[in-house]
Each structure stands twice: as C-alpha cells, then as structure tokens.
Amino acid sequence: MNWAMKFEQLIVLHAIVTEGTFRGAAERLNKSQSAVSHMLKNLETEIDIILLSREEYRPTLTRAGEVFYRQATRVLQQMKELSTVASNLNAKQEPEVYLAVTATFPLKPVLEIIGTIRDEYPATHIRLSRESMGGPIERLLRNDADIIIATMDSVPVELVEALYFSQVTIVPVAHPDFEPARSSHMKTINEMQGYTQVVVADSSTGEFVQSRDLLPGGLRWTVSDFAAKKEILLAKLGWGGIPTHMIDRELARGDLVVLNVEGYQKRQSQLFQMRKRDKDVGIVAQSIWEKLQM
C-alpha cells in the first residue's frame, strides 16, 4: 500500500473541503484541477466510499464523508505534529518568532514567558505587537505572526489550532461627572445616542475587520489604543468599554464609574492562543506555545 500517496490524498480532500471548490484546492496545492479530481476519485475508489457530493456547484461532504473527514483531519494534524518533532530534533533555533496579542490582555504574563525564552534562545529575535479586533487573526492567516492571543470571533477553525488561554472582563465606564454617570438607572440606547462613545480602532485592514459593542446611531470617537481611550474618559469627554485590569485603580478611587447602559453590561471576553495548522513550527515557537499553557 502506498502510504505516501494516501497521505497526499488526505491533503487533497482537506484542501477541497476548506477551499470549497476543486479549483480553489488546485490553486492552493499548486496542482491542476484534473489532478486534484483524479486523486480524490482514486481515494473514493480505494476506500469504496463517496466522500463528496458533486451535485451542486460547490462539492459538499456526504454523511459518510463527514465521518471520514473528521478522522482525516486528526491524521493530518498528527502528521504535522510528527513532522514538527522530526524537524526540531535536528533544527537550530529559528531567527525570528512573531507574537500578536490582543490589546485587551495585560502584557505582563506574556513578557515573563518572553524573558525566559530570551535566556534559552538568545539568538532568536522576538517580535511582539499589540492588535485590536481582527488584527491578530489577520496577521496569523497572512503568515505575519506565528502565535496570536485573541478571541475566536471570525476565526476559521478549520485553519487554526486554538487552546483556551485566559479571559478578561470588559465594562462600560465614564467619569462620574459625565452626564450619564450621574444617576444609576439603566440608560436606554436612545438616551445614550447623544453622548460620545469612544472606541479603539480595529488594527486589521481587510476581510477580518470587526466591530464590537458599538452603540447603533450614536456619536463616536475612534482612537488608536486603550491608553488614549482612558485619557479621554477621564477628561469627561465620552464613555466606553475598557478591560477592568486597566482601570482597577481608577474604579477604586472613583475616577471612573461603571455605567448602566441597555445592552452594554459587563462582558467576559474569552481569549485563546492560536497558530496555523498547516505552518511548520520551529523549536522557539513551540517552546513559547507550551509555556503559554503552563
């Protein structure tokens, strides 16, 4: 039995499913469309199972195909991990590792890990960026980042390996002298539309642009980061959501207060560490990945 061919057939099946068309799979694998179709047909013949229905424009998994594909993705992931182990056994440390971390998460835990990595792998240049909204996943999928820490919003799970990492609490706040903060009753969306909501800009530039917790029809200022946002709120010029770890002292001193706004209550944001499934992992990136789970 030709196991190398079998593995390549699984890669072809995975590409068809994730790309959605035979043409897309062919372009991704740098093969002709006829070669892709032929390899899939051979696989179906060898296992005597119709994996994909060709009745529609886009091929879809049959019921048996769904079961087979779930197992196939596990095999592909295991082969990737085995390949990584084999590569790392003889590999030198990679020259650079890029991490992208959501702006809502405190950097201290990540910096502690980077400090350890610096001592273990001094020749590797660590690049670290702070990203907002769709920025982290855009960097990852464009191969501009090796590991990201972000929410799972708009993440194509078939392309990404994700492990739960942490969570942050985000609350709507304002200065106590800001008009909506002067009373504790719940403010309706209509009431809040006349007050400026301060939001942090999405650092992504294309298809991964996101919007979250935006008041419909309201006045809005957009800033580059949470530090600027907090300064504006302290200046009594607006309101907005900020992670609690950034404003613990301001809340304790009463410099900022939590607002009671319709549809904008305290929110728990779940964060995950992510990397691409199909990207080779170097020894330094693998070490960072494992340390993030400790």
TrEMBL record:
Q: Which UniProt keywords apply?
A: DNA-binding, Transcription, Transcription regulation
InterPro entries given in the database record: LysR_HTH_N, LysR_subst-bd, WH-like_DNA-bd_sf, WH_DNA-bd_sf
Protein name in the entry: Transcriptional regulator, LysR family
Superkingdom to which the source organism belongs: Bacteria
- Which residue numbers delimit the HTH lysR-type domain? 5-62
PANTHER family per the UniProt record, alphabetical? HTH-TYPE TRANSCRIPTIONAL REGULATOR (PTHR30126), TRANSCRIPTIONAL REGULATOR-RELATED (PTHR30126:SF88)
Q: Which family does it belong to?
A: Belongs to the LysR transcriptional regulatory family.
SUPFAM superfamilies assigned to the protein according to its UniProt record, in alphabetical order: Periplasmic binding protein-like II, Winged helix' DNA-binding domain
GO-annotated molecular function? DNA-binding transcription factor activity; transcription cis-regulatory region binding
Question: What Gene3D superfamilies does UniProt report for this protein, alphabetically?
Answer: 3.40.190.290, Winged helix-like DNA-binding domain superfamily/Winged helix DNA-binding domain
